[in-house]
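Recall the central idea of this unit: under ordinary conditions, the amino acid sequence of a chain determines the structure it adopts. In this exercise we apply that idea directly, starting from the sequence alone.
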Amino acid sequence: MSARNVAEFVFNHRLAQRIEQKLKAEGFAETMLLLTEGKARRSLVKRVAAANDLQANLFLSIHHDSVPNKFLEEWEFEGRKSRFSDRFSGYSVFVSRRNPDFKTSLSFAELLGKEMKAQGLQYAEQYSQAIMGRHRRPLLNKETGVYSYDELVVLRTTRMPAVLLEAGSIINRDEELKMDSPERRDIISSGVTAAVREFCDPRWAILGAL
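Accordingly, the structure predicted from this sequence is:
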């Protein structure tokens, strides 16, 4: 839940739809938005199975970030109790070193991080800090905010290059408002589209459209 009691799914779905629209407009006609029902882990397994069955060339998982419970504070919004943390903000990009094509996953992750940065966005630096405890992750690229998260199901068990994007923090009250805006969705989706285009361009001459 966001700081204003909106489910993360709402943010994820709106952004993923915008990314899908932009990719298709750029000629990536086979782009598919995967939505799966069920509890979290079961839903993730279904999503991976669908991507594997489709023999996709690239898998991108869209999320919006929170913080460990120890950083949360309480407040009231529109008469309802909620929790927030304004301490951290920014996007982050994750890959798994256990993905069967880790090298290519990392290549796309770095392109994505570079494009997010080019859009004027800052990455979330806290994942590399000791204060994160068990949520701390190895930072693979300090310029673009690419981290490794080896055990994530959607990154580890996909049979194609896979990247997870935490688009921004919706538990941060200021950033939540930005993430809720069409303008920020356009900025992020433009960054994703540019990264996909750059990732695929070297392959066009050999493979054709992906």
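The first strand starts at residue 59 and ends at 65.
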